[in-house]
Write a structure and sequence with these properties.
Length: 327
């Protein structure tokens, strides 16, 4: 964000109008592509969630050599970060304002005659006013420095800005928050007795990665025992690799015997489904947590649970096997 601000300042204050126009347009295009990519990532995750796009994740029943992933941006989760999207949208508007200022120097595209002393903030507000939501806010606040696009060339520029702002920028944020709302509703459905649990479990298995932390939190901290148990089952469907470590770490805090057994059983299943991809650091930490439960916290567990913990320890591959493989 600071780099963008410094570069935008250099474009506006240390360059001639033609450089402002084309450099600003180029940088605005770059950030616009980031916004478009974020929108594509969200759209693809929604398609995976709905079953329109096939993604065979690790731990599925599909053989590793036959797995398919038809997404275009397979590793684009970082683009879906809200801070990055906000920063890219603001940078897009800022560089677009610099481009408009540069073009204004040689073209009468605004109803105000060009002067070198017109602050860049006026151009920024003029560009931001083309965003369907921001234009109402700017008018409501009563800001008077917004300029109007003028003439044929100005009308063309205005329509291009309005279309990109309205369809892409607003569309990105709308899709993001609708995406988050769907995840929240799924978690509420899993916690409710009214939800169709098999259907919700199938949805959770295809849900975006960020739902996994919510599922683990529900399995550990939800006040209702049956909801914690249900979340444990969902963790197996969603193949949450961090579930065994978190579950075993908190096992002594679980007050219901049936939930302890279910949590260990799910942990064993997840370990077995992901054996080829387990790393030495993962197995070492998990075995340490099992050791703590078998020794320091054994007084919290029944003999049946202690036996299941030993079975889980046996299911975790020896650390030496991975160390030798790494060498």
């Amino acid at each position: 964000m600071l780099l963008n601000a410094a570069l935008c300042g250099a474009v506006v204050f240390a360059s001639a109008p033609p450089v402002q126009a084309y450099t600003g347009l180029g940088m605005a295009s770059l950030h616009f592509m980031i916004v478009v990519s974020a929108l594509l990532v969200i759209a693809e995750e929604n398609d995976v969630w709905a079953g329109y796009t096939r993604v065979d994740r690790p731990g599925s029943t599909v053989a590793p050599g036959n797995r398919r992933d038809y997404r275009v941006l397979k590793r684009g989760r970082i683009l879906k970060s809200l801070p990055l999207m906000v920063a890219s949208a603001l940078a897009y508007l800022a560089f677009l304002a610099a481009a408009v200022k540069g073009f204004h120097a040689d073209n009468a595209i605004l109803n105000v005659a060009y002067e070198a002393g017109i602050p860049i903030e006026h151009y920024f507000l003029t560009v931001a006013a083309q965003v369907p939501v921001l234009d109402g806010i700017i008018k409501w606040i009563g800001i008077k420095t917004v300029m109007e696009f003028h003439g044929v060339a100005g009308t063309v520029v205005k329509q291009l800005i309005y279309v990109t702002n309205g369809s892409i920028i607003i569309g990105m944020f709308n899709s993001y928050f609708r995406h988050k709302s769907q995840i929240r509703r799924l978690m509420q459905g899993l916690a409710s007795k009214k939800g169709d649990i098999p259907v919700l479990q199938a949805q959770a298995s295809r849900a975006p990665e960020e739902i996994k932390s919510d599922i683990i939190e529900m399995a550990i901290e939800h006040p209702e025992a049956h909801t914690r148990r249900r979340a444990m089952s969902v963790a197996m469907y969603a193949n949450i690799l961090t579930f065994p470590q978190t579950m075993i770490h908190n096992l002594h805090l679980e007050t219901v015997e049936q939930n302890k057994r279910r949590g260990i059983a799910v942990s064993v299943e997840i370990i077995r489904n992901n054996l080829p991809m387990l790393e030495a650091s993962f197995t070492q930490l998990l075995r340490r947590k099992i050791h703590i439960q078998l020794n320091d916290n054994r007084h919290h567990h029944s003999e049946h649970v202690l036996t299941m913990l030993r079975e889980l320890r046996a299911a975790v591959p020896p650390i030496q096997r991975f160390s030798l493989a790494a060498e």
